[in-house]
Amino acid sequence: MDTTATLFLKSLLVGLSIAAPVGPIGLLAIQRTLDQGLRAGLATGLGAACADACYGALGAWGVALVIDWLVGARLWLATFGGVLLLWMAWSTWRQPPAAQAAALPSQRELLRCFAGTFVLTLSNPLTILSFIAVFGALAGQAGAGLAALPLVAGVFLGSALWWLALSLGVARVRERFGVRWRQRVARGSALVLAGFALWQGVGAWQHA
């Protein structure tokens, strides 16, 4: 049987690998870091990391009723997520870039960044199915109860480390982007987010 440390490292890599591909959350984190700074980008990413940890917990502890409901509701979750993505795309398109690259977001804006990506990640059916499959297998190696807790902590830490690295990397170069370039990035991100929304919605209804 794998040791707790080994399983923790495996779950950390799972969290990292699921967070790392550039998708709608990554685009939001990049755009918000450029426009509002490190804290906004990190808050965006941590919302996704917390949602990843929630699904990791469901997979690790095998909450059958909740898992069955989520799998059955994945069509409607995908639809809700698509609508939320469209709203984020529209908000990103309309929001003027900050006049100062060093402007700090308010606590309310940080909470909005966190909450939006938390809900968006929870509504992603691919995240649901990925964590159920992977963590069901890892939890079988770890055992039940508190023994599975390091797996949940590992996936959160792996995901959070990715968002920290991404936000730090973008924050280091954000001063090189003037208002015009940051507006172009925002508009481009909005278009890609809308594309993700349409792709997610069409794909979900085709496989319904």
Q: Brief description of this entry?
A:
With 208 residues, the protein is an all-alpha fold. Helices cover 82% and strands 0% of the residues.
Question: What does this protein structure show overall?
Answer:
The protein is 82% helix and 0% strand. The protein has 208 residues and is mainly α. The chain has one domain. α2 runs antiparallel to α3 (38-61) and α5 (74-94) runs antiparallel to α9. The protein starts with a helix and ends with a helix. The mean pLDDT is 76. Keywords: Cell membrane, Membrane, Transmembrane, Transmembrane helix.
Question: Which terms would index this structure?
Answer:
LeuE-type, transmembrane, mainly alpha, 208 residues, amino acid transmembrane transporter activity, membrane, single chain, 82% helix
- Tally of individual domains: 1
Percent helix, as a range, is: over 70%
Residue share in β-strands? under 5%
Q: Separation of termini?
A: 39 Å
SS-derived structural category: mainly alpha
Return the string of H and E elements: HHHHHHHHH
Q: Please, what is the average pLDDT?
A: 76
Radius of gyration from the CA trace? 18 Å
Number of distinct beta strands: 0
Helical stretch count? Answer: 9
Could you describe the largest sheet, including whether it forms a barrel? none
**What is the overall shape?**
globular
Low-confidence stretches: none
Pfam family, one: LysE
Membrane topology: Multi-pass membrane protein
Protein name: LysE family transporter
Subcellular location: Cell membrane
